[in-house]
Amino acid sequence: MLNEVIKHFEKFCFVNLKLKGKKVESFMYGPPGELLIENIKREWLYNVSIYRENNVYPFHIGDKSGFVTRDNVESFLMAKEFNSAAVPWGIVETRSAEYADFNCTDPIHPKINTLLRYFGFFKPSEAEQFYCRWQLQRKRWWRKFSNDPGKFAFAEDSRTPDGIKSQSIILAKFPWGDHEIETVKYHGDYLFKGLPKYQLTRLQIYDGKTKCLPHVIESRCSLDYALWTYLCDAYFKEKKENKPVVRLHKKLAPFKFTAAAAFVNKNKLNQLIDLSHLILLELRKEGISCLLPVSPPFGVTALEVQLARSRALGIPYIAILTEDSLDTGIFGLYSRETTLQEQVHLSKIREYGQTLMTA
């Protein structure tokens, strides 16, 4: 089954696995894969930074170390000053790591990763409570975009590395094995150990009337492995026709809309293509990603062949045009999830498309 999944996403230009020996060195992305990874990154940043109850600032530290060191402590101090030293605050970082230090046994986990990392800084009296909430929120985030939320769970792992008060690992469970997709750690103030005294003084906060070092909570995941996990989660085989369907969440889908048309008169073909482009360009004006059709297959191959290709690319909505659409402006909007069509007029597609994307 895993080989089948790999072949499908290579065939449809999502991702190619670059091997070194028997393990994956890196991923190479085609057009849908590149759009998908940007969508995942955007949703992650929204969840951990923008949609928070306290200030969380984006940074690019540029250092490969995940710890507060002499090289990057100034970035932490900058965030503290920017937040007027009021805890809690946080920073998020998206950074490239030549070789990530994930303790993952999955040979498909790429060695070369883009890491997504969150650091939160809290009063010691409040940190543990936040840690308990944060690990649950992070698991809910993974489940939000899944077809089977039940496959995301916490690992039963009693190992706690030195200097970490608590840690939890979020798993995605598949028939071929578990994906370790995110680690959440409660460091306490251990990350600051070994820094010079003058830096420690600058890092101190108040917990009530007591001056102390903030406690740190970290979560991190591989953006590349997140993409692979969601692709595996989205892959299905239709029972009736045994054809692959990619059921990506509409927020993550690389292309939200495309268009199709069954066999049409050659004289009408170019007009229908122009009409399909007009419909999809209206959606693009609203920032909705669309895949413009070309002929063939549009208007030349069987409609079911075109629908099968769109489903294999994970496209949620397909505008189905007929020759009558040229006269009436009405077309069928096919839903990948329901496999049903509803009639929509050209003049309404812009507004309706926004409604579908925000529902």
Keywords:
aa-tRNA-synth_II/BPL/LPL; Gly-tRNA_synthase/POLG2; alpha+beta; seven-stranded mixed beta sheet; 35% helix; 359 residues; four-stranded mixed beta sheet
Secondary structure blueprint with pairings:
Blueprint: H1 2-11, E1 15-20, E2 23-29, H2 31-50, E3 56-59, H3 73-82, E4 89-97, E5 113-122, H4 124-144, E6 152-154, E7 166-174, E8 177-188, H5 197-203, E9 205-207, E10 210-212, E11 215-222, H6 223-234, E12 235-237, E13 244-246, E14 257-261, H7 266-284, H8 303-312, E15 317-321, H9 323-328, E16 330-335, E17 341-345, H10 349-358
Parallel strand pairs: 3-4, 14-15
Antiparallel strand pairs: 1-2, 4-5, 5-11, 6-7, 7-8, 8-11, 9-10, 12-13, 15-16, 16-17
Helix pairs in contact: 2-6
InterPro entries: aa-tRNA-synth_II/BPL/LPL, Anticodon-bd_dom_sf, Gly-tRNA_synthase/POLG2
GO cellular component, one term: mitochondrion
Protein name: DNA polymerase subunit gamma-2, mitochondrial
